[in-house]
Amino acid sequence: MIGRAVHGLLGGLLLGAAILLSALPATALESFARSTLTIETAVGGKYRFDVELAETPAQQAQGLMFREKMAADAGMLFTYSRPQPASFWMKNTLIPLDMIFIGADGRIVNIHANAVPHSLDAVNSAGPVKGILEINGGMSARLGIRPGDRVVHSAFGTGG
Predict the structure, then answer these.
(1) For residues 133 and 145, what is the distance between their CA atoms, to the nearest angstrom?
(2) What is the model's pLDDT at position 72?
């Protein structure tokens, strides 16, 4: 009888510890390669971003979670081997983000501006995409970046 009680208590403690650990930030779990990309707007603007590359499922799951700030010219580029519908959320993301959905040809398909930190609402692409660029919230509007603009990066066969 006492053995069962101790076993149950230990199981409960382990479960509680697992729940607490799952809520901790995933800092330093994944490292990201870096690259640069340029967005060329229809009105002649060219904007360069230094991006971290989220290429593996583990990197994509972590994304920009737990980041307290990001440089104005920084971002994260999520890429897929082939175009597919994409859906993101803002769980454990501390800063507002613009999500720029990019087609296989490097053209911007759609933009979700100012995604709300911690929101569990789905943010979806308007069709199949090969990549998603996350930048600081409001940056797309400030720079005049719109659907149809071109992203220059090797992931889309459009450069470097």
Answers:
(1) 12
(2) 97
Q: String of b and e for 83-108 (b: at least 16 CB within 10 Å)?
A: beebebebebbeebbbbbbbbbebeb
Q: Does 25 score more than 70 pLDDT?
A: no
Both tokens assigned to 145? 């970046």
DSSP the chain: -HHHHHHHHHHHHHHHHHHHHHTS--TTS---EEEEEEEE-TTS-EEEEEEEEE-SHHHHHHTTTT-----TTEEEEEEEEEEE--EE--TT--S-EEEEEE-TTSBEEEEEEEEPTT--S-EE-SS-EEEEEEEETTHHHHHT--TT-EEESGGGTS--
Q: Break the chain into its structural domains and give their ranges.
A: 28-156
What's the pLDDT tens digit per position in 116-125? 999 999 999 9
- pLDDT at residue 21 greater than cutoff 80: no
Residue whose structure tokens are 């499922």: 57
Q: Any idea which fold 28-156 has? A: Jelly Rolls (2.60.120)
